[in-house]
Amino acid sequence: MNRWARVFRWHRMQKEDDEVEEKKEEGEDEKKLPAKPKVNWTEWVVDPSEEFYYGWLQVMIFPIFYNWILIICRTCFKEIEDEFLTLWLTLDYCSDLLYVADTIIKFRTGYLEQGILVQDRERLKKRYLFSSRFLLDLASLLPTDLLYLYFGIHQPLVRVNRFLRISRLNEAMDRMETRTSYPNTFRISKLMLYIFVLIHWNACIYFALSSYIGFGVDRWVYPNISDPVFAPARHQYIYCFWFSAQIFTTVGDTPLPDREEEYLFMIADLLIAVLVFASVVGNVGNVITNLRDRDNVFFPNHELVRGYLRNRYISKQLRNRVNDWYQHLYINRKITRENEILQQLPVQLQTEIAVSVHLPTLSKVTIFQNCETSLLEELVLKLIPQVYSPGEYVCRKGDVGHEMYIIKDGKLAVVADDGVTQFAVLSDGNFFGEISILNIKGNKSGNRRTANIRSIGHSDLFSLSKEDLTDVLSEFPAAKRHLEEKGRQILTKMGMLVEAAEGEEEQEEEKVEVKVERLEGNLDTLQTKLARLMAELESSNRKILARVEQLELETEGWEDNLPEEGGEEGGEVERRDGVGMEVEGKRGEVEGEEQAKGTEREDEGKDEGYGEEKGGEGGETKETERRGQEDM
């Protein structure tokens, strides 16, 4: 027994140790979990673009509709007010609490300024306090329930100021319309809801007017409530609602009024009915127009095409093919004008949508695998959806290839020239025509189609044109070389690449590179010579200007110092001799300087024939000075 007791004790101790270890591991796991960020309620600001704000607007729909529907109903139908008074008071003050919370949230709601959310509480508070909405919200929160002490607890009309929060309902409806996936259905539903509220108000006012005139005094008013059939509150409300609906819809025979009050009520209702009818017709017409415009954007206009085919007397067989194509698009919701639909969005959003829709398909193409992501993002914007009917040829053998195709859905057959023999069947994810758009030199097919491709059933393809691919690859030279290399490998495996042409292409590229290098060297030499000539020209201009200024200074006052008649000839001779000696001396200096410069340039050996050109320039300069001296 002692032996078994020790065994049981040992097992119990093992279990206890295991439990302790499990608790330690759970504690460590809890420590490893990141702590939830705590919200600082004192600095909390609501972003109008967040989900919380949108959800809060939806919550505020209920108290606003409650006040708009129940206050007037409880005021006119006293039996409903008396029977459920406790419930109404509870709902009244719950809606008031939501109004107060909504006001607090408005104090904390941020707004955009220069594209940045303002979160400064003082600025938010100041902006809300000085807005027109604050006055309406404040008026809707006034404690008008204190008037119960004067009018009595059964007068819910004292809470009429709660109607002033209607702007919040309009904002909520607008937000829901922009976010719903079915805006047209939502517009119709919103219109019907507003019409219901209008008929509800009219029914309550009709019952109150009948009570004022007297129940059952004539056929127009509500029947006498002393009759057990018309006494229940439920029957009263349903009858009044039916009577108001008849007036607004102008359907059915309503009793003719007998009193002035009744006539005035009917006139007002008929005018409102005209507006209601116009609004219903207008909104339904807008919905139908929007649906038609949406269909015209998503799908080609079938009516125009059918009219054209009918006017041109196209054969019935071809017209049936066109009708089948349109029917396939419409039944299967095929969209062929994606680019036009997305043009209203920014380019970044267009790219993200196209990437999420088409990138998996494009990445299946062999030549585009392992390419840059940015290149694929540019290409997905160029993909054009196309739909082919059964038996229609996508391309024929010998046609010049202007685009490549990627199969999204359907099956295509590679057939012989007779159109019957099938060599292969292409299905989802396959592609063809990729080599013809790369312009690879040495391709034996010369960028022409090498097979006949025909659609077996209805096929959905993506086409990528040669021009679009060329435009995109112009911005990605590395990717262009990569794609051309892959294309050459594919052609080599198919035996469609001429190796000699490939070698000639490389030699031509080398020759072009040598020519480019030679032209660059010649351009550098010409630029150096041009810079040297420009410097010499500037130096010559400065020297000529200095000589002209010096001559002007020396000739100043010559006319004033001319001798009188007798000594004119002698003076002229002396002046000519003196000037001649000065000019000869300056000419000698200039020639010495120019000879020294010419010697230095010849020693440098910068250009051939440079000294001779300068010698010619020096000779021309001497001749110019000599002519100037003779003129003087």
- Fourth CATH level, the homologous superfamily of the domain at 360-501: Jelly Rolls
- Catalogue the unreliable spans: 31-35, 565-584, 599-622, 627-632
Summarize the biggest pleated sheet: 4 strands, antiparallel
Which CATH architecture of the domain at 360-501 is right? Sandwich
Q: What's the gyration radius in Å?
A: 49 Å
- Estimate percent helicity: 55-70%
Shape assignment: extended
Strand order of the largest sheet: 3-10-5-8
How far do the termini sit from each other? 150 Å
- Tally of contiguous helical segments: 21
Range of strand content: 5-15%
What's the β-strand tally?
Answer: 10
Quickly give the structural class: alpha+beta
* CATH topology description of the domain at 360-501: Jelly Rolls
What can you see in these coordinates?
Residues 556-571 have a biased composition (Acidic residues). It is a multi-pass membrane protein. It comes from Salmo trutta. Pfam families: CLZ, cNMP_binding, Ion_trans. This protein has 632 residues and is α+β, with helices and mostly antiparallel strands. Among the domains are: 42-179; 360-501, Jelly Rolls (Sandwich), CATH 2.60.120.10. The chain has 21 helices and ten strands. The chain has helices at residues 2-32, 51-76, 78-83, 85-107, 121-129, 132-140, 148-151, 166-179, 183-213, 233-249, 260-298, 302-311, 316-331, 338-342, 347-362, 373-380, 466-473, 477-494, 499-555, 568-604, 610-631, and strands at residues 111-113, 116-118, 384-388, 393-395, 403-409, 412-415, 422-426, 431-432, 452-455, 459-465. Helix 2 (51-76) packs antiparallel against helix 4 (85-107), helix 2 packs parallel to helix 9 (183-213) and helix 9 packs across helix 10. It starts with a helix and ends with a helix.
